[in-house]
Design goal:
This protein has 551 residues and is of the alpha+beta class. The chain is built from 19 helices and 13 strands. It is elongated, with a radius of gyration of 34 Å. The chain starts with 9 loop residues before the first helix and ends with a helix.
């Protein structure tokens, strides 16, 4: 957060904290080190009568565009949030009233560097859609006459979003610092990742490039497609693309067999995007998919896309096959292979959790298995056990979950498994292709030879360092702390035992001398020595008993 100061945004910070308090998060706020004059001035508010997941969603909707988007992005992080939170945050909607076109006209002129009339022969000033970050207008190009949709970013939204994101990052840091139970989830890192994603999404050129890239890779444009964009008219805050006439997947207006075929086309397209292209639409929910009059599916809103490397794609294919086969041991092994080097998960405990998740989410005997839901739950299990897989795996799980919902909206009997085998076979053929195997072998051999070539130089540098710096090696024993304590306790007891023995012997010698003064007819010093030795002896006995109970 460059140049961010909580005091300079105290007004907005107070609004955020007050909204969280109103929605029942006072206990959470009380555990954080908040600046004086903000939280202390907020009136205590009783918790709202809703589940925590619902209260979090309502608070995000009240706080506006940045927090709505933040919640939507976090709904794609099953490694951080339980499935109940994921499901609730997916309901986030920005309830915004459309603004008059006059407020957007200046942005359009600034970005295109000309008056709109020079580019559009028609421009309807009534917005066709209004969201938290932008509004969409229908127009017609002056050159060519094609009908287009013009997406214009709301004026000043980027600055307000950045302030809210900075405040969200500050809150996440406070939570991470003061609440031990949430520290393993590393919320500051998650918020920072979401922040970077949102800032990229505010640049409409990224969305334009994603749509162009998908259309270039798409092998079946007669079944699925993305709107064509007009790059010359696309800028950071303006996106001009083909206008798509279509119906929502919830009401396609087509016979059942055509709807079933459309569901299959959408599923195969997404699986191909993930496993073959390694580039996929990260949020293909029902609102982002249209059924066109010619019977095709159109994927809208490409602001967020996922990217998978070849290694991740191949591991994911194995992951899916193992999930369908209910092979929990194989799933845990794949996750462990992809985990960071410093991860130390309990694989046996994970295997039990994975087995239960597969039984509940992918039990084919009970019907309606949900691969996307199962993937979300498995990623949450991995995250709880310290295996933070690639962010794009989370996007993939969310995309699969969404496309299954779209598929069932079109076809109640939809089953993603039926559409996966052709794509999986294609991927496995690619993996087993002799040409690809030979290329991979050459790459490994080349890397090994380069390593051998560099080895003498690295060895010389190590020897030179020993010669010049006279390095020392520090050895530190670990795990000996308890032995240290035991030896110290034993030494103290032995010393006390020696003292007690000496007192008893000395007192006995004094008693036999009959030297005055006397007590009960015996020398007083001897009697006092016996009493002191008895007290010390009793202390040693009680100490031994106490330590045995704590073991």
């Amino acid at each position: 957060m460059i140049g961010f100061d909580i005091l300079s945004h105290a007004g907005r910070a107070k609004d955020i904290l007050a909204a969280l308090a109103r929605h029942g998060f006072s206990n959470l706020l009380n555990q954080m080190d908040l600046p004086a004059g903000i939280w202390q001035r907020l009136l205590p508010t009783p918790p709202a009568p809703h589940r925590a997941e619902e209260r979090l969603r309502l608070a995000a909707e009240e706080l506006g565009p940045a927090f709505v988007k933040l919640g939507q992005i976090l709904s794609m992080r099953p490694d951080l949030l339980p499935h109940s939170y994921i499901t609730e945050l997916r309901k986030l909607q920005s309830q915004v009233q459309p603004l008059p076109f006059e407020e957007f006209r200046a942005t359009l002129v600034t970005e295109l560097e000309r008056e709109p009339e020079e580019f559009f022969s028609e421009f309807n000033p009534v917005p066709a859609a209004s969201a938290s970050l932008a509004q969409v207008y229908f127009a017609r190009l002056k050159e060519g006459g094609q009908p287009v949709a013009v997406k214009i970013q709301k004026p000043g939204v980027e600055r307000s979003v950045q302030i809210d994101l900075d405040l969200a990052a500050w809150l996440a840091a406070q939570v991470h610092k003061h609440i031990d139970a949430l520290r393993p989830f590393d919320l500051p890192a998650a918020i920072e990742e979401a922040r970077q994603g949102m800032l990229r999404e505010l640049d409409f050129r990224t969305e334009a490039r994603n749509q162009e890239y998908f259309n270039a890779l798409n092998p079946q444009p007669d079944q699925v497609f993305a709107p064509r964009v007009y790059p010359d008219l696309c800028t950071r805050r303006v996106l001009v693309m083909e206008r798509i006439e279509g119906r929502p997947v919830s009401d396609p207006g087509l016979p059942a067999d055509q709807c079933s075929a459309l569901a299959g086309h959408g599923a195969q397209s997404l699986v191909r995007q993930i496993l073959i292209s390694g580039f996929f639409h990260a949020d293909p929910h029902a609102g982002n998919v249209l059924v066109t009059p010619d019977g095709r599916l159109c994927f809208l809103d490409w602001g967020l896309a996922g990217h998978l490397t070849r290694r991740l794609r191949q591991a994911l294919a194995d992951f899916w096959v193992a999930a369908v086969e209910q092979d929990a041991e194989r799933i845990v092994q794949i996750a462990a292979d992809l985990a960071p080097a410093n991860a130390r998960p309990d694989l046996r405990a994970m295997e039990k959790e994975v087995t239960l998740a597969l039984r509940e989410e992918l039990n084919f005997a009970l019907g309606e298995p949900q691969l996307g839901r199962a993937m979300l739950r498995l990623l949450h299990i991995f995250g709880r056990n310290g295996i933070a897989l690639s962010r794009d795996y989370s996007l993939m799980a969310k995309a699969v979950f969404s496309i299954e919902e779209v598929g069932r909206a079109l076809d109640p009997e939809f089953d993603l498994r039926r559409h996966m085998p052709p794509i999986l076979r294609e991927l496995f053929r690619e993996r087993a292709n002799p040409r690809n195997l030979a290329r991979r072998f050459r790459e490994v051999l080349h890397e090994a030879l380069l390593g051998l070539q560099d080895f003498p130089g690295e060895l010389r540098r190590i020897v030179r360092r020993f010669e010049q710096e006279n390095p020392t090696i520090n050895l530190q024993h670990r795990g000996l702390e308890r032995l240290d304590d035991s030896l110290r306790v034993a030494a103290n007891r032995i010393a006390l035992g020696v003292v007690v023995g000496s007192l008893i012997i000395g007192s006995s010698l004094l008693v036999t001398t009959r030297v005055g003064p006397t007590l009960f007819g015996y020398p007083a010093l001897g009697i006092i020595g016996y009493i002191i030795s008895a007290l010390f002896g009793l202390y040693v006995i009680l100490d031994i008993i106490r330590h045995r109970r704590h073991k």
